[in-house]
C-alpha cells in the first residue's frame, strides 16, 4: 500500500503548546490590528527596474518595536528568470547581510525589464505587491501580498493557546524589531524547502489541509539532537513551489528566497473555508530582501537560486568514497586497528575520521599526548596516504581559555593578541562553556581572523595532524551556558567536561533484546518472520513564551518583544547571548544564523592557502545560504532508529534545494545502539547518497561494518556499485559546480506532471537516470516503489538488467532480501562506469572504464561524462565525453584538454535487437555476446581512447 504522509500538526496533539492567559492570548492581535501599512511614492524607473519611497500611512502600531516611517523599495530584474524586491529602511540602520559575507550578482549590463519571465506589480496605498509570470498575467500570482488576496475575515489562531500563531490579513509591517509580510498561495500547493528541518509531514511541507494543520518553521540555528518539527542547525529561508494545473495536467515550479539572517517564524497555513493558502514571514530584525525565481522546472529553480548565492564547491574525487568515524576511539592505535580490520574484511575505506577523542583536554588544534601522541598520529596519517587513503579530524567552534599564566595554549593567547574573539558589550572577552571548559569564540568579522585561523590550522598540521579535510562541528555556535558565564570565573578550578563511562542502552524500534541479546547482532536469517510494526510519529512539545505588549519604547537585544518559536525558548539558550558583540558594530542578534557559514568560508580559504594544489574538503553542521560554496553538510546528531533512516532522505533532498549537494546522514545512526539489520539497510541506503559516512557516539556499541557478517557483505556489494558509478557521481557534481543543477532529485523533478510523485520521499533519483528504492522498515523482505514515467519510460534492474513490469502511477512490490537494495536504470541513458571497482578510489580510477547503455523504445540513448584529475582546483584541464546512440550506432564525442589514461574496455547495451555483426570504427569484431532474453549486447576486450573524437560502435 502507498505510504501515507502525515501532516505536521500545530494542534491536535502533534505540536502541543502550553496554554496562556486570556490577556496574553489577545496580545498578538491587539498589537498588529491597527498597523496602517505604507504608501508608495517618488517612484523612479530605470532600465533594470525601479526605486520608490514607502511612507507610513498613519500612526505606527508599534506592535513589537518602533514602526519605521520611511522605507525604500528597489526592484531589479536581475536576469530573464530572477527578480529582486528589496525593502529597507531609508536611513539604512537595520542590519543587512554584508556583501563580504554573501556576494550578490551585480546589476546586469542588459535590461531584462521588458523581457523577464517575471513581472513586478504593485498597489500604491496601502502598498502591496504581487509577482506574475509574463506569459500568464491573469493566473494566480506566484507571490501576492495584497490584503484582498488573503483571507478576508479574522482567522482563529493555528493553536488557540498560542496567539503568536494567529493570522489575519494585515498590510506590510516594518519595525526595528519586527517585520511581517504575507502572501497568498494556491490552496494546498506543493511547498518544499524552508529548512533546515526534519518535518513529520515529509519532504513536502504541510499546508494545513487534508488532516494537517500547517507549518511553523523557525529560523534560529541551534545545537540539538535532530528534533522533529523544530528549528535545528541551519537556516535556509528559501522555498520552491510546484503548481499543478488540473485542467491542463501540466506543472510549473517557482522559487522565493528571503535573504535575511534575522531570527524568524515562517508560517504555512490553509484557513478553514478558504480557497487559498498563505505563507507569512515574521522576523525580529533586518530588512526584506526577496529574490523570485521563475523556474519553470524544479531543477531550473534550484539552479537560479545557485546563480544568486553561488554554486557549490568542487569536491575532490576521494570525497565520494566511504568514510568511517566514531566518538569513542580510545587511542590512535584503536583507530589504526579499525583501519586494518576494514582492509582485512575487504570493505573499502577511503577516509578515516576522528572525533574529539583526538584532543588534549578537549582543546582544538591539539593531540592527546598519551592516547594520540603527535608523532604516532603523523605516522598513522602517513601510512594512510601511502595506501591512497585520507584522514579528517574534527574542529569545534569554541576555543579553550588558558587557565593561568603557565598554561601555554597558543590558539587562545595568539587570538587575544590578534583581537579575534567575540566580546561582551563592555569590551571584555565573551566566555562561554563547551567541552574543554570555559571557551572563547572566533569573531568571523575580525580583521585578523583569516590569518589567525589559517595559522592555527597550519601549526596543527605541522604538529603531525596531516589532515586531508576538516570537519566543523558545534558551530551554531554551541555553548552550554546562554551568557558569558566565564566572566569573572576561577579558570584554574574548572575541569573539562567528560562523558567517559556513559553507556547507552537504547536500541532501534522492534529490537528484541531477549531474542537477540545485547550485542546488536540479530541473526538476520530470522528477521523475515518479524511481524513488528513501527509508529513513525513523534510528538514534539514546544513551550511558548509570553508575548510582550505593544508600544515598546526601546530596542531589546537580549529579549526581543516578538518571541519566535525557538525550541530552546530564549534565544541565548545553549548558544551565544544575543548581545555578544562583533567587530564592525554587529551584535549576535543580527548575525547569529551566519556563524557557521562564516567559519566555513574562513576554513575553506585557509585550506586553499595551505594546500594550493588541492581542492578543500569540508563537512559542517550549521549552514546558511551560500554555505555550499565552501562546505558540505552532514545531517547532524541523528538516532539509531528506523524512523531516522527514513527522515534522512528528506534531509538529503532539502539540501539539494539549498545548493549544498554534498550531504548525508550518520549511517547506522549516531545516538543509541544500532543493530545488525538496521545497519545493513542503512549502509545500503547511504551508498546512493552523496556523502557516505558511518559515525556513532560515545558509549554506544561499535558499528563499523565489519562487526556483522551481513553488514560486511552488504557493504562490499553497495560500495562496489558506488565506486562503479563514480564517473556518474562526479559528472553530477561537476554540473552542480558549473550550473547549480541538483545531484539528487525528488522523483517529480524529472516527472513534474505526475501528481502521485509530489509527496514521494521514500525513493529518490541520482541525477536523472538512477532510481533508488530502499527498505525502511524492520523485518521486511519486500519493498513497494513507484516507477515514474506514466508508461512511457522503461526502467531496468541494475543487477539483472531485466525490464520492470510496473503499472504507471501505482506502487509495485519488489523483492528486497536483507542483502539487496533495489536500484533501477532509466531508459535513454548512457552511463560511464568504472569497470573494476577496487579498494580505494585511486585504484579504481586507475582501472578501465565500462559503458552501460539503456535504450529507449525508439532505440536512443544519451549521456555525458565530465573527467579531470579530481584533485586540482578549477579551472583545470578537463574533458567532456558524450555518448549518443541512434539507429543502432553508438557515437562517442569528446572535447577538452584533459588526457584520459584509462581506456573504455566494455560496452553493454540494454534493449538492443539481436545483432548479426558488430563493428568498432567500421571494423568487424568478434568479441561480443548477446542475450536474447535480456536483450543485452555486450562488446568486450575493447581499448577505446576517450580522448579520441568520433569513435563509433554499430550493431546490425
Automatic annotation (TrEMBL):
<dbReference type="Pfam" id="PF21365">
    <property type="entry name" value="Glyco_hydro_31_3rd"/>
</dbReference>
<feature type="domain" description="Glycoside hydrolase family 31 TIM barrel">
    <location>
        <begin position="313"/>
        <end position="732"/>
    </location>
</feature>
<keyword id="KW-0378">Hydrolase</keyword>
<keyword id="KW-0326">Glycosidase</keyword>
<protein>
    <submittedName>
        <fullName>Glycoside hydrolase family 31 protein</fullName>
    </submittedName>
</protein>
<dbReference type="InterPro" id="IPR030459">
    <property type="entry name" value="Glyco_hydro_31_CS"/>
</dbReference>
<keyword id="KW-0325">Glycoprotein</keyword>
<dbReference type="Pfam" id="PF01055">
    <property type="entry name" value="Glyco_hydro_31_2nd"/>
</dbReference>
<dbReference type="GO" id="GO:0004553">
    <property type="term" value="F:hydrolase activity, hydrolyzing O-glycosyl compounds"/>
</dbReference>
<dbReference type="GO" id="GO:0005975">
    <property type="term" value="P:carbohydrate metabolic process"/>
</dbReference>
<dbReference type="InterPro" id="IPR013780">
    <property type="entry name" value="Glyco_hydro_b"/>
</dbReference>
<dbReference type="InterPro" id="IPR017853">
    <property type="entry name" value="GH"/>
</dbReference>
<keyword id="KW-0732">Signal</keyword>
<dbReference type="GO" id="GO:0030246">
    <property type="term" value="F:carbohydrate binding"/>
</dbReference>
<feature type="signal peptide">
    <location>
        <begin position="1"/>
        <end position="27"/>
    </location>
</feature>
<dbReference type="InterPro" id="IPR000322">
    <property type="entry name" value="Glyco_hydro_31_TIM"/>
</dbReference>
<dbReference type="InterPro" id="IPR011013">
    <property type="entry name" value="Gal_mutarotase_sf_dom"/>
</dbReference>
<feature type="domain" description="Glycosyl hydrolase family 31 C-terminal">
    <location>
        <begin position="740"/>
        <end position="829"/>
    </location>
</feature>
<comment type="similarity">
    <text>Belongs to the glycosyl hydrolase 31 family.</text>
</comment>
<dbReference type="InterPro" id="IPR030458">
    <property type="entry name" value="Glyco_hydro_31_AS"/>
</dbReference>
<dbReference type="InterPro" id="IPR048395">
    <property type="entry name" value="Glyco_hydro_31_C"/>
</dbReference>
Amino acid at each position: 500500500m502507498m505510504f501515507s504522509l502525515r501532516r505536521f500538526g500545530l494542534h491536535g496533539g502533534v505540536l502541543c503548546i502550553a496554554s496562556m492567559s486570556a490577556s496574553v492570548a489577545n496580545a498578538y492581535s491587539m498589537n498588529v490590528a491597527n498597523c496602517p501599512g505604507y504608501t508608495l511614492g517618488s517612484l523612479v524607473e530605470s532600465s533594470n527596474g525601479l526605486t520608490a519611497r514607502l511612507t507610513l500611512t498613519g500612526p505606527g502600531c508599534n506592535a513589537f518595536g518602533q514602526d519605521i516611517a520611511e522605507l525604500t523599495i528597489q526592484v531589479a530584474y536581475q536576469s530573464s528568470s530572477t527578480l529582486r524586491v528589496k525593502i529597507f529602511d531609508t536611513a539604512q540602520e537595520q542590519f543587512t547581510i554584508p556583501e563580504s559575507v554573501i556576494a550578490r550578482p551585480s546589476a546586469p549590463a542588459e535590461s531584462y525589464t521588458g523581457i523577464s519571465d517575471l513581472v513586478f506589480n504593485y498597489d500604491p496605498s496601502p502598498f502591496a505587491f504581487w509577482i506574475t509570470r509574463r506569459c500568464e498575467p491573469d493566473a494566480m500570482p506566484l507571490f501576492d501580498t495584497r490584503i484582498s488576496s488573503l483571507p478576508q475575515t479574522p482567522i482563529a489562531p493555528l493553536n488557540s493557546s498560542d496567539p503568536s500563531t494567529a493570522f489575519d490579513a494585515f498590510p506590510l509591517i516594518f519595525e526595528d524589531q519586527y517585520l511581517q509580510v504575507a502572501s497568498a498561495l494556491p490552496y494546498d500547493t506543493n511547498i518544499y524547502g524552508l529548512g533546515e528541518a526534519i518535518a513529520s509531514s515529509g519532504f513536502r511541507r504541510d499546508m494545513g489541509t487534508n488532516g494537517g494543520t500547517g507549518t511553523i518553521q523557525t529560523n534560529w540555528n541551534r545545537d540539538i539532537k535532530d528534533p522533529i518539527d523544530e528549528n535545528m542547525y541551519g537556516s535556509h529561508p528559501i522555498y520552491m513551489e510546484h503548481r499543478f494545473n488540473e485542467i491542463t495536467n501540466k506543472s510549473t515550479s517557482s522559487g522565493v528566497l528571503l535573504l535575511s539572517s534575522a531570527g524568524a517564524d515562517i508560517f504555512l497555513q490553509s484557513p478553514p473555508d478558504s480557497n487559498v493558502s498563505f505563507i507569512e514571514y515574521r522576523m525580529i530584525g533586518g530588512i526584506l530582501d526577496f529574490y523570485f525565481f521563475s523556474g519553470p522546472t524544479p531543477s531550473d529553480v534550484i539552479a537560479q537560486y545557485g546563480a544568486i548565492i553561488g554554486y557549490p564547491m568542487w569536491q575532490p574525487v576521494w570525497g565520494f568514497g566511504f568514510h568511517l568515524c566514531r566518538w569513542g576511539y580510545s587511542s590512535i592505535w584503536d583507530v589504526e586497528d579499525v583501519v586494518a580490520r576494514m582492509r582485512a574484511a575487504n570493505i573499502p575505506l577511503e577516509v578515516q575520521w576522528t572525533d574529539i577523542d583526538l584532543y588534549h583536554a578537549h582543546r582544538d588544534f591539539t593531540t592527546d599526548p598519551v592516547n594520540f601522541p603527535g608523532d604516532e598520529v603523523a605516522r598513522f596519517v602517513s601510512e594512510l596516504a601511502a595506501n591512497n587513503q585520507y584522514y579528517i579530524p574534527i574542529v569545534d567552534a569554541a576555543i579553550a581559555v588558558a587557565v593561568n599564566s603557565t598554561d601555554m595554549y597558543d590558539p587562545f593567547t595568539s587570538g587575544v593578541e590578534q583581537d579575534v574573539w567575540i566580546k561582551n558589550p563592555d569590551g571584555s572577552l565573551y566566555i562561554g562553556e563547551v567541552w574543554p571548559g570555559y571557551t572563547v569564540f572566533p569573531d568571523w568579522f575580525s580583521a585578523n581572523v583569516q590569518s589567525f585561523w589559517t595559522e592555527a590550522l597550519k601549526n596543527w598540521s605541522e604538529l603531525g595532524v596531516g589532515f586531508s579535510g576538516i570537519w566543523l562541528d558545534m558551530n551554531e555556535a554551541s555553548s552550554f551556558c546562554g551568557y558569558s558565564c566565564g566572566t569573572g570565573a576561577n579558570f584554574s578550578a574548572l575541569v573539562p567536561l567528560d562523558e567517559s563511562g556513559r553507556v547507552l542502552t537504547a536500541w532501534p524500534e522492534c529490537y528484541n533484546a531477549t531474542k537477540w541479546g545485547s550485542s546488536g547482532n540479530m541473526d538476520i536469517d530470522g528477521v523475515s518472520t518479524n511481524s513488528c510494526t513501527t509508529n513513525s510519529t513523534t510528538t514534539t512539545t514546544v513551550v511558548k513564551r509570553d508575548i510582550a505588549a505593544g508600544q515598546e519604547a526601546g530596542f531589546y537585544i537580549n529579549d526581543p518583544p516578538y518571541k519566535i518559536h525557538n525550541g530552546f525558548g530564549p534565544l541565548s539558550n545553549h548558544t551565544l547571548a544575543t548581545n555578544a558583540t562583533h567587530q564592525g558594530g554587529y551584535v549576535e542578534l543580527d548575525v547569529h544564523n551566519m556563524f557557521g557559514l562564516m567559519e566555513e568560508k574562513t576554513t575553506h580559504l585557509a585550506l586553499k592557502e595551505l594546500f594550493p594544489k588541492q581542492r578543500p574538503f569540508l563537512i559542517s553542521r550549521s549552514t546558511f545560504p551560500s554555505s555550499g560554496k565552501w562546505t558540505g553538510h552532514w545531517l547532524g546528531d541523528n538516532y539509531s532508529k528506523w524512523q531516522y533512516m527514513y527522515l534522512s532522505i528528506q534531509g538529503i533532498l532539502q539540501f539539494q534545494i539549498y545548493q549544498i549537494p554534498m550531504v548525508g546522514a550518520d549511517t547506522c545512526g549516531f545516538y543509541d545502539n544500532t543493530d545488525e539489520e538496521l545497519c545493513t539497510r542503512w549502509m545500503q541506503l547511504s551508498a546512493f547518497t552523496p556523502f557516505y559516512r558511518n559515525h556513532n557516539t560515545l558509549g554506544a556499541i561499535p558499528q563499523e561494518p565489519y562487526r556483522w557478517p551481513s553488514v560486511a557483505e552488504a557493504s562490499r556489494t553497495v560500495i562496489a556499485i558506488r565506486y562503479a558509478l563514480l564517473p556518474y557521481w562526479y559528472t553530477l557534481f561537476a554540473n552542480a559546480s558549473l550550473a547549480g543543477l541538483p545531484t539528487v532529485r525528488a522523483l517529480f523533478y524529472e516527472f513534474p506532471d505526475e501528481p502521485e510523485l509530489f509527496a514521494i520521499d521514500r525513493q529518490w533519483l541520482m541525477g536523472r537516470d538512477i532510481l533508488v528504492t530502499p527498505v525502511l522498515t524492520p523485518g521486511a523482505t519486500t519493498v513497494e516503489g513507484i516507477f515514474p514515467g506514466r508508461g512511457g519510460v522503461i526502467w531496468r534492474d541494475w543487477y539483472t538488467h531485466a525490464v520492470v513490469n510496473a503499472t504507471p502511477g501505482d506502487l509495485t512490490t519488489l523483492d528486497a532480501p536483507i542483502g539487496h537494495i533495489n536500484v533501477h536504470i532509466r531508459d535513454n541513458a548512457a552511463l560511464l562506469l568504472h569497470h573494476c571497482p577496487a579498494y580505494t578510489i585511486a585504484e579504481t580510477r586507475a582501472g578501465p572504464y565500462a559503458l552501460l547503455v539503456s535504450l529507449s523504445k525508439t532505440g536512443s540513448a544519451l549521456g555525458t561524462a565530465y573527467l579531470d584529475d579530481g584533485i586540482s582546483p578549477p579551472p583545470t584541464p578537463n574533458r567532456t565525453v558524450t555518448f549518443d546512440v541512434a539507429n543502432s550506432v553508438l557515437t562517442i564525442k569528446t572535447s577538452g584538454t584533459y588526457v584520459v589514461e584509462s581506456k573504455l574496455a566494455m560496452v553493454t547495451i540494454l534493449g538492443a535487437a539481436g545483432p548479426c555483426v558488430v563493428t568498432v570504427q567500421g571494423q568487424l569484431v568478434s568479441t561480443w555476446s548477446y542475450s536474447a532474453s535480456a536483450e543485452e549486447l555486450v562488446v568486450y576486450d575493447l581499448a577505446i581512447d576517450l580522448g579520441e573524437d568520433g569513435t563509433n560502435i554499430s550493431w546490425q
